[in-house]
Design brief:
The chain has a 5-stranded antiparallel β-sheet. A 3-stranded antiparallel β-sheet has the order 6-7-8, with no helix packed on it. The protein is flat, with a radius of gyration of 27 Å. It is built from 5 helices and 8 strands.
């Protein structure tokens, strides 16, 4: 019964996601049809302001259609999820802390204005003088992880520092890490072929017994990007 409930929850979540995607495509289709009809009606009009408005609406529609085409190419299983985005300052001191703030403002505006996502601050650490040493935000919306995941990595800024009276050029670094929001209940399956078990003799008290018995066990579990090591002594 519990498995059935989990499957039903997963199917309902997937249904909601697909329904939202289909609705967005229908909205774009209707807007395209309305603009085409309007453009045909005013094809002989000399009203420049009205024509400029129609052209602006058309450019906006083209941009949103382009976004949907990009989303259709998302291939990661978590691309449709919301995501956590963490920015940490690197080398550069005050400059790097200010760089973190600049990146935060950029990603917030990108998410809220460009994609209509919502952004919530989860945690932040203030810099020593100004800016932030680290900040984590949650970007909520369908496809947030798919759009943001390629931002993971080291970001560098080279500029004339506003904090340096000598007006020298400074280089600042900040790391960005993006991870998807997933369900609290995650089913992790470890296959036997991915296990490697080593046995060896334990150290410490125990006299001759520890020298004759391999009582220590180390288990390695291989995941796609890392090794999980469990030792039992």
């Amino acid at each position: 019964m519990e498995d059935d409930a989990e499957k039903a929850k997963s199917l309902l979540s997937e249904r909601s996601r697909v329904s939202a995607v289909l609705t967005s495509f229908r909205v774009l289709e209707k807007e395209h049809k309305d603009l085409a009809e309007l453009a045909e009606m005013i094809s002989d009009s000399d009203d420049r302001d009205f024509l400029a408005t129609i052209n602006a609406e058309l450019q906006s529609l083209k941009l949103r259609i382009s976004q949907k085409k990009t989303e259709c190419m998302f291939s990661h299983e978590a691309d449709a999820n919301s995501c956590f985005l963490t920015i940490r300052s690197g080398a550069g001191g005050t400059e790097s802390s200010d760089w973190v703030c600049m990146l935060l403002r950029m990603y917030t505006k990108w998410a809220e204005s460009f994609h209509k996502f919502t952004v919530e601050t989860v945690d932040s650490v203030d810099g020593e003088e100004t800016g932030l040493k680290a900040v984590t935000v949650k970007i909520c919306g369908i496809g947030a992880y798919g759009w943001a995941r390629t931002e993971s990595g080291i970001h560098r800024l080279v500029r004339i520092s506003p904090f340096d009276h000598a007006a020298k050029r400074h280089t600042s670094f900040a790391s960005v890490e993006v991870s998807p929001v997933v369900d609290h209940e995650i089913d992790i399956k470890i296959l036997e072929k991915d296990l490697r078990i080593d046995t060896y003799r334990a150290s410490g008290a125990g006299g001759q017994h520890v020298n004759k018995t391999e009582s220590a066990v180390r288990k390695f579990s291989c995941y796609p990007h890392f090794w999980l090591i469990l030792s039992v002594i």
